[in-house]
Design goal:
Radius of gyration: 26 Å
Oligomer: single chain
Number of strands: 0
Distance between the termini: 92 Å
Helix content: 55-70%
Length: 130
């Protein structure tokens, strides 16, 4: 038996195990330590329909709602779920909730307020003579 046939046998066994578990191509390749390209081509040769890796419908709204209840910021929800910030803010707008500001944006606000406060102090004495 050639080396190529043994690799094909390993990929084929991984595909059957992955199908039993309901895994996608990427999940099958990562779990059984075979190449994604090999899994994809072997599944195509076997005539198996490829299942794309997708999130469950409505999972974003559920994640935003639970994050809002837990007091999470957009960045914290993004890190936990992998959704984009734009998608998270759009879902929050559709749900009618406001997310807690992230620590970075609250620092920016503080900095802006400090700068504005310094600007007013400077405008009171425009020549700088004191």
């Amino acid at each position: 038996m050639s080396d190529r046939a043994s690799v094909y046998g390993k990929v084929k066994a991984a595909i059957f195990a992955g199908l039993d578990l309901g895994l996608s191509v990427n999940e099958t390749a990562d779990r059984f330590g075979v190449g994604r390209r090999s899994v994809r081509s072997c599944m195509g040769a076997m005539g198996v329909k490829l299942r794309p890796l997708r999130r469950r419908h409505g999972s974003l709204k559920a994640a935003v709602a639970s994050g809002h209840e837990g007091g999470q910021s957009c960045r914290e929800i993004k890190d936990a779920t992998g959704f984009s910030s734009h998608a998270i803010y759009a879902a929050a707008r559709r749900l009618g909730v406001t997310l807690k500001p992230s620590k970075v944006s609250s620092l920016r606000c503080t900095t802006r307020q400090q700068i504005q406060g310094q600007g007013k102090a400077r405008s009171a004495n425009p020549q700088g003579v004191g």
